[in-house]
Amino acid sequence: MNELISxxxxxxxxxxxxxxxxxxxxxxxxxxxxxxxSELISMFGVSRSTIREAMxxxxxENIVDIQRGKGTFIAAQPGVVKDPLGLHFSDxxxxxxxLLETRxxxxxxxxxxxxxxxxxxxxxxLEHIVQDFKVMPDLRAQHITVDINFHTAVAQCTQxxxxxxxxxVICESIHEGYYETVTIEGxxxxxxxxxxxxxxxIKNRLPEIARSETEKHILQTAKDAKLTLGGx
Amino acid sequence: MNELISxxxxxxxxxxxxxxxxxxxxxxxxxxxxxxxSELISMFGVSRSTIREAMxxxxxENIVDIQRGKGTFIAAQPGVVKDPLGLHFSDxxxxxxxLLETRxxxxxxxxxxxxxxxxxxxxxxLEHIVQDFKVMPDLRAQHITVDINFHTAVAQCTQxxxxxxxxxVICESIHEGYYETVTIEGxxxxxxxxxxxxxxxIKNRLPEIARSETEKHILQTAKDAKLTLGGx
DNA sequence: TTAGACAAAGTGGTCAGACGTCTGATTAGT
DNA sequence: ACTAATCAGACGTCTGACCACTTTGTCTAA
Lengths: 232, 232
Description:
Helix content of chain A is 64%, strand content 4%. Chain A is mainly alpha-helical.
């Protein structure tokens, strides 16, 4: 039943919030059918205008896809937008420095938490990525993609969606920055070794090792990019 | 005149496009008044529903700011979107926990860096915000806004634009989460004291104090929200 | 004269119902 | 068996009304 919404302001916002909750609670997947407008009207006890406005909010967030005559469905990649923070604003050199500094702040702690919270599935996923590294040809583009995947997978181990969503944004922005940077001899090999060390630490539940190895890895990355990070 | 729109689909999108053009053509600045709904109805020759939906599109892009009873105005920072990471697409309780955990990871270090890098202008800005706190009435909405401003201003002290852009996203998402949460007695007072301590530490260049005070502040915030953060 | 109470107008928020158009499935006719 | 008409369901748009909030101006009383 409807659980009457008393306040008479921002009803669409509240309705949109509950719609998101419904999606999460029912574990709806991309492509799944969404309740029709008339169903939502009787579910929420608000008018069609309000429901429609709430739906439009979800559309703006790329959470649902409305198709005229058919119905509404969960979007393919709910909530995903590119360069969401609008980071391509300042000069590349400073941006790269800022990005690496940010990684130096959050990633060691992410690795620490990952060690404590990783599920068996998480660890398996990490192992696959590390294996991909080893057998991978020396293609720079692919290497960076897998590198981002690795760090994102570590973030996923924390079971913290905020970190898990934020980290790829940082990594991909760095990728953009590197795009015009020289590849340092041996950097890929050093990165691979670091990743193996981090993976082993997570697998064997050694949080302090994971943290320090991650810190070392990022400092090494900065060094390869001819940048220096301080202020720890 | 109205230039009759023949197609009967996506009228709001078309109207929104023309509204954007109007803003650009007339060189409208942030704060400028926007035509009222009834004016737009006669300008475009479409119904109020359509106009309203078009306006909501502009709101989603943070181009205009609609104020009930007053009117519609050009937004302060047109185009800077809210919730860019799509964090609302998640379980509220868990999201709040994740957000606070993220703050616990980055903010103490932000305060540390702020202490080392803050300019005199940064410190002045912080001081103004702290003063605003003291003389502020007990209005919850205003309090939260100034709270976000304070933490964002601290992030600005780091001279790291990535942190400076990321932190408000986190803070505002927490604000959203609190929207339907009970206000804890005395939490505002405790927050004010913490902010003063942090400000003093930054002003007097005491990085360790700034870090520990920030950590304490966030843990207190979590406690007020009846959440426990661990894993340090 | 002035401070406060009050009424009116303007604005956005919500509701209710109606009709149009598109889509997909069903059904009638060949 | 195939085609075309029909139907039901879904979203798109329109209309008109009423509600809530803000501003403004007027009026009254001190």
